[in-house]
Amino acid sequence: MEWENQTILVEFFLKGLSGYPRLELLFFVLVLIMYVVILLGNGTLILISILDSHLHTPMYFFLGNLSFLDICYTTVFIPSVLVSFLSEKKTISFSGCAMQMFLGLAMGTTECVLLGMMAFDRYVAICNPLRYSVIMSKGSYVPMAAGSWIVGIVNSTVQTGCVVQLPFCRNNVINHFACEILAVMKLACADISGNEFIMLVATTLFTMTPLLLIIISYTLIIISILRIRSSEGRSKVFSTCSAHLTVVIIFYGTILFMYMKPKSKETLNSDDMDTTDKLVSFFYGVMTPMINPLIYSLRNKDVKEAVKHLLRRKILISKWKRDR
């Protein structure tokens, strides 16, 4: 583009479902229900991991961080999306967009690294049970969780900093529900190959490296499980890591489906398919945080017992207050 077309943007227009006004109310109700479930489910997991002394272990410390992360990640963009569904004004300020990009990318990166740490925790618990308390001491798992957050913040700071320094032209329409970093980059009237290279390096380091750690950990776990002679013993050991493995498969499986599926020329030029891709991407960001607490509660006896204990405690307190 010509440099005279360059301007200082003060806001972006989020396209979202602008072409489908009748669907906006339906999706408002659906997304609102899902958001409430996310807050209740993940909030409950955080609460029981703090209040129940039996859950003061590395695994539940990581799980509490994951639940807090999911709440933060969805809160970054869901409230603004809900407002846009009901409002004719679908704009976001440049600074607000930058903050949304920063927080979204930071949370996403942190979750990738945290899932890798949780896989390592399961590997030590199953393959080196006698040394578990030594290897996964508080002096180890707290810095591991903190390191995940630091990695996410550093990666997001670098990538978001590079994007906000790009010159933007008159086109301010982001073809998404929120300020997704790649969608914003495409609006720049400058060569973004450097930004794309940084993104590729960051994706390799902070997405594929944790995935490699997960694959190695679970390969060793499976080998260890297969050495157990009794089927009951194998089932009992596998149940300790099945919830985490299910979350990993859903998390990375959806990413691979979204970004590695082949796209024909018709797909690339089709507005309907473009809308479908946006919806898949959006609901991926909502569905995963919503089902995580369900998976951990349904497939984990400790969590079930902790929830029952919390409910009984609440009922007893309420009864005691009424009796007074």
TrEMBL record:
Pfam families: 7tm_4. Residues 41-296 form the G-protein coupled receptors family 1 profile domain. One of its GO terms (molecular function) is G protein-coupled receptor activity. SUPFAM superfamilies: Family A G protein-coupled receptor-like. Its main location: membrane. It is a multi-pass membrane protein. The chain crosses the membrane at residues 25-48, 60-86, 98-120, 141-158, 197-225, 237-259, 279-298. InterPro entries: GPCR_Rhodpsn (IPR000276), GPCR_Rhodpsn_7TM (IPR017452), Olfact_rcpt (IPR000725). It is found in: Cell membrane. The keyword Kinase does not apply. PROSITE patterns: G_PROTEIN_RECEP_F1_1, G_PROTEIN_RECEP_F1_2. It comes from the Eukaryota. Keywords: Cell membrane, G-protein coupled receptor, Membrane, Olfaction, Receptor, Sensory transduction, Transducer, Transmembrane, Transmembrane helix. One of its GO terms (cellular component) is plasma membrane. Odorant receptor. Belongs to the G-protein coupled receptor 1 family. This is Olfactory receptor. The lineage of its organism: Eukaryota, Metazoa, Chordata, Craniata, Vertebrata.
